[in-house]
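Cross-check.
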Amino acid sequence: MKRILVIFNPAASSGSKALAFRRFLDSRAGPNVTLAPTQGPGDATKLAAADQTHDLIVAAGGDGTINEVVNGITGKTLGILPFGTVNVFAKELGIPAGLNAAWHVLETGRIRTVDLGCAEFAGQTRLFVQLAGVGFDARAVRATTWSLKVKL
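Predicted model, tokenized:
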């Protein structure tokens, strides 16, 4: 059986949806599934980079969580458990929005190869899976509040 590391942001949402998500994750934890909550920005990258024992690293969250994990993962398979506001990349890959159905995809090992984009600026390199924004669109995303994201 494959060993799975699930990286997630425990503060990504609130209310009953967040509680149900955490219960779902806790129900999957065990000898082969390790839960790794992040504490702040950049933690998902560090957790993915430091892992030496798991076969599959799962980004449980939205596009931002996926981006952080992708920038830390090397030589391992990325799994996605969609729990973001929109989950654009998961939708593009055809990963079901429901947690049970998405987990089934992780368990069955349906693997797809994707090309990563790479951006370099001021001596730093960042990978990305679907799009990169600079200028106005990046500023708009950064300035958008959580409550506005939920409404949109």
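Residues 15-28 form the longest helix (14 residues). The CA atoms of residues 62 and 84 lie 4 Å apart. Passed to J.P. for a second look.
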